[in-house]
Design a protein that fits this description.
The chain is an alpha/beta fold. It contains 10 helices and 12 strands. The longest helix has 21 residues, at 294-314.
Length: 320
């Protein structure tokens, strides 16, 4: 770990532990997971959460498509995110934005494997591969990735579970209704929060029955994947309920459309709204927070933590 990352972690520890209002061990009496076991590493939530930095090696991702499609630029960006405080890097080679065009397995491999190989030799943090294709996951895990982040919940490709078992990889199981090509056509739920909790519970039970260690499972409600604006808001408002699943929870909210809608300006830059949503997730003890802008998120949380700590100290009764 480089010097800047060490200082960021030390700073975070100081702020979090000095803030008497923050208890990462539980929320509303429900215990929260303390770590996520990956292939060979363990992602510990020493401060209650970690930031997952996003590296899209794609020409068409909704927010940064084309910026990091070359190997050198993707690796440089990943190392910058680590320097800013990311504790895991998520590399993806196929856009999953609504109505994105599918990418062949060969093309996805061409995009991501050289990046993962290079990062595995340079990075001080674990790497996850964002894919639903078992062949891509297999090659990425062999190249040095520690986990598979599958938007289909390890369901779309029937070989994905076998690949995860083969490599003893960490897995992130996300809920989605449909595929990127049709998921936003007409998503319908009765009670979106309860239905997704029940889905993730069933998937976790099924994966454990298949032989995956429960400590290797992370769960993601899938903000924006087959959900209307109202569904996304409900999931964010009740996100703490997902802790009842007794697994680490990942949320990928960064720069997504619901932020523009909430601000009544869908053309506006979404960084400020992403910061607000990130602080909400941290307060609700979400363990893995997937973002594009690690530096801004770190700064926002550090300032809020410091101010809350000062307020807590000022409210203590004077000794004497």
């Amino acid at each position: 770990m480089n010097r800047r990352a060490q200082l960021l972690k030390k700073s975070m520890s100081k702020f979090v532990h000095s803030n008497m209002r923050f208890d990462a061990s539980s929320i509303d009496g429900v215990p929260t997971s303390k770590h996520w076991q990956l292939k060979t590493q363990q992602l510990k939530f020493e401060h209650g959460f970690v930031f997952m930095g996003i590296v899209n090696v794609t020409p068409d991702s909704f927010s940064d498509g084309g910026k990091y499609r070359e190997i050198d630029s993707a690796v440089e960006h990943a190392m910058q995110l680590i320097d800013e405080g990311a504790e895991i890097i998520d590399v993806g080679g196929e856009s999953t934005r609504p109505y994105a065009s599918p990418v062949s397995c060969d093309e996805e491999l061409r995009r991501v494997i050289p990046v993962i190989e290079r990062l595995a030799s340079l990075a001080s943090v674990p790497i996850s591969i964002d894919t639903w294709k078992s062949d891509v996951a297999d090659a990425a895990l062999a190249a040095g990735a520690e986990a598979v982040n599958d938007v289909s919940g390890l369901e779309r490709d029937p070989r994905m579970v076998d690949v995860a078992l083969k490599h003893s990889a960490g897995v992130c199981v996300m809920h989605s209704q449909g595929t990127p090509q049709n998921m936003q056509d007409n998503p319908v739920y009765g009670d979106v929060v309860t239905e997704i909790i029940n889905y993730l519970r069933r998937r976790k039970i099924s994966l454990v029955q298949c032989g995956i260690n429960p400590e290797k499972i992370c769960l993601d409600p899938g903000i924006g994947f087959g959900k209307t604006h109202a569904h996304n808001i409900a999931l964010m408002q009740h996100v703490s309920r997902f802790h009842e699943l007794a697994s680490p929870i990942l949320v990928g909210h960064s720069r997504k459309g619901f932020i523009g809608k909430l601000s009544n300006d869908e053309t506006a830059e979404r960084l400020p709204g992403t910061i607000a949503a990130t602080l909400h997730l941290i307060r609700n003890r979400i363990q893995v927070i997937r973002v594009h802008d690690v530096k801004s998120m770190r700064q926002a949380w550090s300032v809020e933590s410091a101010l809350n700590a000062a307020e807590s100290q000022s409210q203590r009764p004077e000794e004497g």
